[in-house]
Amino acid sequence: MLKTFLIGIKDLRLAFRDRAALILMLAAPFVLTLGLGLVTGRFSGSNNSGLSDIPVIIVNLDNDQLGDALADVFTSVELADLMEPAIGSDPEAARQLIDEDEAAAVVIIPEGFTQSIIPQQSAVAAELVKIEVYANPSRPTGAGIVKAIVDEFLSRVEEGRVSGSVSILQLVLSGRITPAQAQVAGAAMTERLQTNTTDSALAITINSSTADGEEVKFDILAYLAPGMALMFLMYTVSYGGRSILAEKTQGTLPRLLVSPTSSTQILGGKIFGIFLTGSAQMLILIGASSLFFQLKWGDPMGVIILVLAAVFGATGWGMFVTAVARTPAQVANVGMSIMLIFGILGGSFVSLDQMPPAIQAFSKITPNAWALDGFTTLALGGTLTNLSAPITALLSMGMILFLVSVLLFGKKNLVQK
Amino acid sequence: MTNILEVQNLAKNYGDFQAVKGVSFNIEEGEIFSLLGPNGAGKTTTISMLSTLYTPTSGEAVIGGHSVTKDPMAVRGVIGVVPQDLALYEDLTARENLIFWGQMYNLSGKSLNMRVDEVLEQIGLTDKAKNRVKTFSGGMKRRVNIGVGLLHKPRLLFMDEPTVGIDPQSRRAILDTVKDLNKQGMTLLYTTHYMEEAEELSNRVGIIDHGELIALGTQKELTQQVGQAETLILHIGENDDSEALAKSLKGIQGVQQAEAVDHEVSIVCAEAEDVLAAVVTKANERGIKIRSIDIREPNLEAVFLHLTGRALRD
What we know:
The complex is a heterodimer.
Chain A: H1 2-15, H2 19-39, E1 54-60, H3 65-75, E2 83-88, H4 91-99, E3 105-109, H5 113-117, E4 132-135, H6 140-173, H7 179-197, E5 205-207, E6 215-217, H8 221-250, H9 252-257, H10 263-293, H11 300-324, H12 328-345, H13 357-362, H14 367-379, H15 388-411
Parallel strand pairs in A: 1-2, 1-3
Antiparallel strand pairs in A: 3-4, 5-6
Helix pairs in contact in A: 1-10, 2-8, 2-10, 6-7, 8-10, 8-11, 8-12, 8-14, 10-11, 11-14, 11-15, 14-15
Chain B: E1 3-14, E2 17-28, E3 32-36, H1 43-50, E4 58-63, E5 66-67, H2 72-78, E6 79-82, H3 94-104, H4 109-122, H5 138-150, E7 156-160, H6 168-183, E8 187-192, H7 195-201, E9 204-209, E10 212-217, H8 219-224, E11 230-236, H9 242-249, E12 255-261, E13 264-269, H10 272-285, E14 290-296, H11 300-308
Parallel strand pairs in B: 3-8, 3-9, 6-7, 7-8
Antiparallel strand pairs in B: 1-2, 1-4, 4-5, 9-10, 11-13, 11-14, 12-13
């Protein structure tokens, strides 16, 4: 275990002493992020997110105050550029449209939603009913934004409901109002609650779900920066994989194999080195973009776990390429091609939502697509708990590729030059 | 003396090609044993099997009481290996290289640092310890390459052609280091295709050719195999046909062997004086100008020529 760690640290040190590698690992993604930020107007304040006309279907079965308020949010003037809402009446038909990739998500506001939040005087406390967001998995970014808007709406509703109930109860208990007057006060608060939830700033200013309640804006760099970092992460993992074959050529691998170090420790150390280098690269880029671009990546714990999962998945690809290739030059060429192909497929240049369904489905073989989905979720205020799908996918991808690579390495003679 | 290495019928095949054909020899503790042979003779393959890098096709070797096939990890603790090609991380400093390789040999902490200092001193690179290896000359890199093999004070050190491609000064330094290590009690298996190195360093020599150990013994024992023969070396002009001259010299009475190598002709004979006049006459008849003539006492070159009919550098 110690030797595995030492080999990994050695590889990390070697990677960070290679100037050419450093340019591609750190400088290139940083400069490209800067360039794309300039092109999209991020630094000139125009705040063009690059995301527009997200198709969403609203099925409002509630037809009451809060249901209408939520539907109004999606059809508001402020969201006219971002959203392309359509009103539906049949939930099944709407879900069918999502399955056919006709929209990013459908928001189904069930009957009795308002009643479950604001019970009428005569009514017995109604059972809580939930809004359903039926998301299109092939349009993760668009669906994520719809979900974030609904979450924010519900967050404000819940906030208003709880604070209203507590205030009225305190007023009654303190004797400032009579139980009879509580009904009037409740009605007034309901009206305020409705106004609150249709606040025009809602859709584009989303409350972070973190405890401090800090507000974050959707920032195009929160999409571009991880996109570029993930694309060049693929370079780093192929660079690391290449070092396995390079060590064979330069004789250090045979020398390791005649030391009292097992082949498992050596291969483990090489994989650990790739993982360490990739993680360091991603964390440095995240730190630099936070520092120089004031980019808010979201929940720190979520970011760290997602980075580790993304690097794990990408390392699996690096090992696979190495196991298939015969020479360091082959790994370099294939690695560079994969970096570009995965960058395009994974949404580093163009949002996956704007790609054909077949490409969107195919993109799921790339760690880029899954990780970018996760980073978008975090930038939109999501937390670690919202990342189960991308993290599971990335870890599974890494595990499968590692197993295949180990089998391929078993058939390959890494000893002889 | 006890044997630190015992090799029995060790063989390595690559498909139909037999790289090593069942070699057997022992090395006693404290000696320098040289494997002498031309390029492609099977020296490196033999060392690779003994150092547990390659699995033998057949046969067995026991090092320090451990089988190379059954207990390779124990063998690796006994041996040190200095490979033929440089095996270093060029972007690490000399010190960082030695620290890393020391850790791979289970050294750590203060003992590792002390040992690294000692080795740096031993290879004469203390003042260059913080420089990256890629800034070193070929000779300095070779010294670091040797230093790595010494870190854990192995009982048996394998050195595979450590002087190939370096300048005479560095070569001299390496040969002196080998002798010093042996004086300190280290046993060495040294492979080379330079006859002079084997003669200078070795207690015993094994001559290997085409994967077979064709002779084994002390230098005296080996030269006795060619009797009292001497070797005449004719240095001729660049444009002269050394092959044709060698052929014509074979017919001279008293000439046992005659081989052409580049612009030289090696002639093995019982007494050089007896054939010298006839040799010069033959050269004159062919219009070949002899630039100089060396007469050498029986040596390993002559042994190799005697055993194989070829010069060592063929």
